[in-house]
Amino acid sequence: MSIHASRTELGAEIRIRAGYAFRGAIEEVRDGPVHAVQMKDLDPVHGVDWRGVIRTQLGGRSEPDWLAPDDLLFVARGTRFYAGCVGEVPGPSVCGPHLFHLRVRPGRALLPAFLAWQINQAPFQRALRRAAEGSSQLSVRRPVLESLPIGLPPLADQERIVALAHLAQRERQLQEQLARNRERQFEAIAEALARASSHA
Predict the structure, then answer these.
(1) Which of 20, 44, 132, 147 is the most buried (most CB within 10 A)?
(2) For residue 2, what pLDDT is reported?
């Protein structure tokens, strides 16, 4: 697949903001008015798993940076850096302080799903590892992330790449399911042989 892409800095295409500055640990409030997405809720393939996102109450007076369906979240510290799509938002939602909130700038020809895919691929991952700082825990600072280069192909090519990525993921899921089914088949055969030998 031949791809022609322009080269630009990430910060020129997207706006990056830090997660909501909670004071201390995020406290769960049953039936709280706000969902708080944390690192544990984010997957590089499936995006935000809203089923496990806790509800809470915001204490600050400043207007939160609310999440929207086309936004991305980026894990900026730890042993693995990656991005995931927010997807459909169930209500007022913010992300925690260990995540960066990414939003494509108005008028930019950039699909959020394509950007998430590119961030999670090996070339960008190598650039992130080179840019990471810290002794006890590695992290990527916002200005550094904004300065990293990305390739920007036409929207039609972005759509094709995203479709191929989804197809590849579906193929992996089917292969894993097939392997699990085969293992269960072998286990059933082994159990049957064990029963047969015990009755011999």
Answers:
(1) 20
(2) 65
